[in-house]
Amino acid sequence: MTDVVDSDELLRRMQRARAYARREERTWRARSDELGQADPAGARDAAVRTLAYETVIRVLDEFLTPGTHDQED
Predict the structure, then answer these.
(1) Which residues, at least 6 apart from 36, have a Cβ–Cβ distance to it below 8 Å?
(2) pLDDT at 5 over 70
(3) Which of 60, 22, 25 is nearest to 69 (CA)?
(4) Which DSSP state fits 65?
(5) Is the separation of the CB atoms in 11 and 64 below 8 Å?
(6) How far, in Å, are 28, 47, 54 from residue 39 at the CA level?
(7) pLDDT tens digits for range 18-33
(8) Cα separation values, 56 from 4, 12, 27, 48, Å
(9) Which residues make Cβ contacts (< 8 Å) with residue 49, sequence separation at least 6?
(10) In the chain, where are the structural domains located?
């Protein structure tokens, strides 16, 4: 399926994706904290998922608001 979308729709989709990633990042961070010492493997998995969502958020932020974030090389 190849839908043609205009720039406004693309922007809206990226903003929704960023909002979703933020919610998921908070959810997995809380889960990692919750599991803590009781389930180290589960806590580690949740922490990895948290990092993945943080990365997605940073990339989408750079697309949506270019140049407003720290430059790391």
Answers:
(1) 43
(2) yes
(3) 60
(4) S
(5) yes
(6) 14, 12, 22
(7) 999 999 999 999 999 9
(8) 24, 16, 15, 13
(9) 24, 28
(10) 28-62
